[in-house]
Recover the amino acids of this structure.
């Protein structure tokens, strides 16, 4: 199979996966609120402010470090975390996927905020509180 065909197949598969996620999602306005445990140690959590004009802010923890930044709310109900600021402490045994995965996109699905990387691989999720 040629590289062009493989690239086309990969793009089609990625688009299908994202459509599957968005088909099961809640409305875009449902993203604001508390997800995970923003004040907990060892577990990630976010406080997401209601978006205004397609953008909003978030703050919380990756389980070890404080994180904050802005997000973009897309028409398909997904959000993209942007400009994440984070402290850089070392916490043994804590998976800091939330702050260490670039280009995180999330969708509300079955009461969870499900995060995927730029290849649409699920990297983590946070339950609504």
């Amino acid at each position: 199979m040629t590289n062009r065909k493989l690239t086309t197949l990969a793009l089609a598969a990625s688009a299908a996966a994202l459509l599957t996620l968005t088909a099961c999602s809640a409305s875009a306005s449902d993203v604001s609120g508390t997800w995970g445990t923003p004040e907990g140690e060892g577990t990630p959590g976010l406080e997401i402010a209601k978006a205004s004009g397609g953008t909003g802010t978030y703050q919380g923890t990756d389980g070890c470090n404080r994180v904050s930044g802005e997000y973009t709310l897309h028409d398909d109900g997904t959000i993209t975390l942007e400009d994440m600021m984070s402290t850089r402490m070392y916490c043994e045994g804590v998976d800091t996927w939330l702050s260490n995965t670039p280009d995180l996109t999330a969708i509300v699905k079955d009461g969870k905020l499900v995060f995927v990387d730029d290849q649409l691989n699920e990297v983590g999720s946070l339950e609504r509180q």
Observations:
- The chain has one domain: 3-127.
